[in-house]
Amino acid sequence: METPLAPIDATQSTHVSVVVPTRGRPALLARCLDALCRQTLARQRYEIITVDDGPDDRTRSVVELCAARMAAHDLAVTYVPSSGPHGPAAARNRGWRHAKSEIIAFTDDDTEPDPNWLAAGLRAFHAGIDAVCGLVVMPLPDAPCDYERDASGLAQAEFVTANCFCRKAVLARLGGFDERFPLAWREDSDLHFRLLRAGAHIASARDAVVVHPVRAARWGISLTQQRKIMFDALLYRKHPQLYRARIRKSPRWDYYAAVAALALVPLALALGAAHLALAAAAVWAGITGWFCIARLRHTSKEAVHVAEMLLTSALIPPLAVFWRIVGCIRYRAWLA
User: Fold this and answer.
1) 244: how many CB neighbours lie within 10 A of its CB?
2) Which residues, in sequence order, are CB contacts of 107 under 8 Å at separation 6+?
3) What is the DSSP string of 51-69?
4) Is the dihedral of CA 53, 243, 153, 16 positive or negative?
5) Considering its fold, how many domains does the chain have in total?
6) Are 51 and 84 in contact (CB under 8 A)?
7) Is 210 helix (H, G, I), strand (E, B) or coil?
């Protein structure tokens, strides 16, 4: 267990540095920067640091134009290139280490912080508070697709880097984000768990709101997202008790059962056990059908979406099990 943090006295400073990691999304970044420039907090009291995780001219241009526009209003907007890409965890580390303020605010390039976001977040830093979680709002259509509904789970997460604040001194003590998480997945949970294990005091500020629109996704995106699952193994290896308590209480036995049944079909046929093969196929079909129906519940029933759910529901379990095994081997973790 990490050494507990000593309590930090309340600060009289109201300065805050906003860190925004980005890569190849200049239009979304421009929207986010525009929202950050319209904060009710006095512009002399905060700065914006954009870390480009894979520098390109369009992103630099967006930030430099914003910086030039806000220079007359005493708001510092900085562009920090980060050759890589190394991932959002590494980009955030470069950002907070570049910051001048005691308090660091994190958000993403595809969000729209409410005008009162920074002021509300700062008000939550009473004596002894080390970090603050704000509210993430993710608007959804009446009949969302499965991807949109799944992404909206971010709004119920305990601690997300789309909307959180942390004292720079605390980040320094913990070493910042673990850069072994190269994707936007579990790096915020890892920081959260390390804060908890270190005895940090985390407050909630429901009036510190960030709107996080769900971006349109390509057909079948759920298949490529399964790669992220291997980083569950890293998180589990570092924090087994907290992982079971706050992420997943038990393994996805339905995935393992579906994969086992599917693998049994050709094996049974090779052994001449046609009845066993038929039974295994029925089990696989039943689990896959149940999974598909669960994903379609409260989501769009358009034909193209139903077709996507049918195909991806068959492919997700084997892909998920494969990437989980890869993660277990890579990070030497047992994660059923």
Assistant:
1) 12
2) 18, 19, 20, 32, 36, 113, 161, 162, 163, 210
3) EESS--HHHHHHHHHHHHH
4) negative
5) 2
6) no
7) strand
- Tell me, yes or no, whether 239 and 272 share the same domain: yes
Tokens of 69: 């526009």
Identify the CATH number of the domain in which residue 63 sits: 3.90.550.10
Nearest one of 138, 150, 145, 89 to 111, comparing CA atoms: 138
Do 40 and 157 sit in the same domain of this protein? yes
Q: What does the pLDDT look like over 133-168, one tens digit per residue?
A: 999 999 999 999 999 999 999 999 999 999 999 999
Q: Give whole-number Cα distances, 36 to 104, 114, 164, 168, 212, in Å.
A: 14, 8, 14, 20, 14
- 117 plus 152 within the same structural domain: yes
Q: Are residues 212 and 242 in the same domain?
A: no
Domain carrying residue 304: 219-336
Encoded tokens for 175? 């070493």
CA distance 164 to 20: 12
Q: What is the DSSP string of 110-152?
A: T-EE-TTHHHHHHHT--TT--EEEEEEE----SS--HHHHHHG
The CA angle 161-164-167, to the nearest 5 degrees, is 115
The structure's pTM equals 0.92
Chain segment 36-52, per-residue pLDDT in tens: 999 999 999 999 999 99
Output the six-digit token pair for 214. Answer: 């769900």
Verify that 234 and 321 share a domain, yes or no.
yes
Amino acid at 172: A
Q: Which of 166, 192, 217 is the last residue of a domain?
A: 217
